Amino acid sequence: MRPSVVIICGGGPAPGINTVIAMVAKSFIADDFRVLGVHHGYQGLFSENPEIKEFDFAHADRIFSRGGSTLIMSRFKPKNEDFNTKIFERENVKLLVTIGGDDTASTANRVIKYLASQNIIIKNIHVPKTIDNDLPLPDRNPTFGFHSAKDEGVRIGNTVYEDARTARQWFVMSAMGRSAGHLAFGIATGCHFPMMVIPEMFNKAKPSIDSIVNLVISSIIKRKLMGVEYGVAMISEGVFHILDIEEIESRGINFTYDAHGHPELGNVSKAHIFNVLVQQKLHKLGIDVKSRPVELGYELRCARPIGLDLTLCSLLGLGVKKLFNEGISGCIVSANSTGDISPIYLSDFEEEGKIPPRLVDIDAQIAQLFFDELHFIKEEDYEAAGEYLPNPEEYDFYKILKWEN
Prior knowledge:
By secondary structure, this protein is of the alpha/beta class. It has helices at 17-29, 41-45, 57-63, 86-90, 102-117, 146-167, 182-190, 209-226, 245-250, 270-285, 298-301, 307-325, 365-373, 382-385, 397-401, and strands spanning 4-9, 34-38, 52-54, 93-100, 123-128, 170-175, 195-197, 231-236, 291-296, 331-335, 341-345.
């Protein structure tokens, strides 16, 4: 039987998945491999009757520039007792290509060890995917899908900002980012929003719901002092991961949890939650400002990949073939800033089997320059802000975060 390559996709969509799949398929088909895409991720891989898509050049050539994923994705995380060898033996599999985030990568590591224990030796190469941009790749290179998602977010964000300016109102916007604020930061800076709140900002101060709300109100009042009666405040959903669960629950905010133990933030509108909290605080202060929530989430994940991601994802697909030809396995394929392909092993990270998230470098010049450009109450604004706020110092950006001015 001809050797085959199996491809699965785990987690949620990101622009460029089809590009990776197409390039892996094209490069292996050219070497007379069968390329099998398995639907439903790990759940499909170990099911009794997996749904399989066998790729040919024509199909791969049709999908490479499309958004979404031609393979149905799944967040299913198999237990050891779910593993079996059926598809690997039946289809003469030589390589398992996994496309996903850190959970998908660490599960692949477990699968390969299990297969080895059953005397089935295959290679695994993982392609890192997340619009959160939170995988620690060399040279701080972006994860694929990030820039396309950010581009779509900026397009929507600029439209919302124009609405704010046109209607003289505020919007509270939230963007995806489980533990890192890269997407929120990129969209907010690209749209010139006057306020953004990302989890990395609380590197010196303990975060709270009140401190986040006060940062938004700080921007609203500062803009009033400037004679500007509109704006957009961006809040990364990742702030929920750094808040005390007791405080969240005390505000009546409840989450369900996925198979990996992560709060299913997609089940609730973070923008709605914070907008209500901001409105409640404004009402208490006697400040008449209208604001509306805008949630940026699923709108971004299946956007058509922009040129940067089309090139990056094509390179990563070729990188899978290159590493396979070199006999390399059990790794993440990566490309540095000059486009050189290299493997990253889970053992290269601090904790083997678990990849620590890459956060926004809050001390980097790019971050500090953009934070300084936000609109917020400073010490020199206290007297004027006193017209609206009984204690202006409680809304001082630097004091809330305990940063030096």
